[in-house]
Design a protein that fits this description.
This protein is α+β, with helices and mostly antiparallel strands. Helix content is 16%, strand content 39%. The longest helix is centred in the C-terminal third of the chain and has 12 residues.
Length: 142
């Protein structure tokens, strides 16, 4: 894989319901689903109890494509129609960094590019056209 674009829906607490709906409607297969409560704990950012059962990340296979989901974190404003971001995936952290930096020109960094427990390089940027990109490097074990 050199690079791929993946639709990523951010839901307002109803990601599990949406996943069940799309699984049925699109004959999708759930590849992975994790709740916020299943993530490693971070004492610097304690998880509110109401978040533990919300979806932190899920991926469905629809035909030959992926469809990704998560629930919004408290305080993140969600607006119908503004829940979609494009997840740009590579298997090379240096390529991810080049793309992230290019998208940042004239845009707004929502989450700096950084190493996370799920990716060697992940960040979010709203480009100068108002399109939200999640720039993601797949970990080798995925």
């Amino acid at each position: 894989m050199a690079m791929q674009l993946t639709p990523y829906l951010t839901m307002d607490g109803n990601a599990k319901e949406a996943i069940a709906f799309y699984k049925e409607a699109l004959e999708a297969e759930i590849i992975y689903m994790q709740t916020f409560g299943e993530m490693p704990e971070n004492p610097e950012f304690p998880l509110p109890p109401e978040m533990k059962d919300r979806v932190s990340y899920a991926s469905l296979k629809v035909g030959e494509s992926e469809f990704m989901f998560s629930d919004a974190f408290p305080g993140q404003k969600q607006q119908m129609g503004g829940m979609l971001s494009i997840c740009l995936t590579t298997d090379d952290a240096e390529k991810t960094e080049r793309i992230f930096n290019a998208l940042c020109k004239g845009g707004i960094i929502e989450m700096p590019l950084q190493k996370t427990f799920f990716s060697p390089a992940y960040g979010m940027v709203t480009d100068k056209f108002g399109v939200l990109f999640q720039v993601f490097t797949k970990a080798l074990q995925q």
